[in-house]
Design goal:
Elements: E1 11-15, E2 21-25, E3 35-40, H1 47-55, H2 61-67, E4 82-86
Antiparallel strand pairs: 1-2, 3-4
């Protein structure tokens, strides 16, 4: 199983209104993953199911998102849309 994309991420202390600080993750800048295959979305496809079929891990859906930086893969993708599925 792949580790969380947040594993090992640097945190910063962010000041709160009450004077305390709260650790928060540094904004993540994702380099687009190269797409190993192009897939034409069909009726009923879901991003977690595509991740399971293409990556062998349904929790890796975010890697498909990283491979498609201009798509909103969390929303229902229109049938006929071409998306990239990364190899890793």
């Amino acid at each position: 199983m792949t580790a969380s994309r947040y594993d090992g991420q640097t945190t910063i202390a962010v000041a709160q209104d009450d004077g305390t600080t709260r650790p928060m993750g540094v904004p993540r800048i994702a380099a687009p993953l190269p797409a190993a295959i192009r897939y034409q979305v069909r009726e009923g496809d879901r991003i977690d199911l595509l991740a399971n079929a293409g990556l062998g891990d349904s929790t890796g859906w975010w890697r498909i998102g990283d491979a498609n930086p201009f798509a909103d893969v969390l929303r229902d993708t229109e049938p006929g849309t071409i998306i990239g599925i990364p190899s890793e």
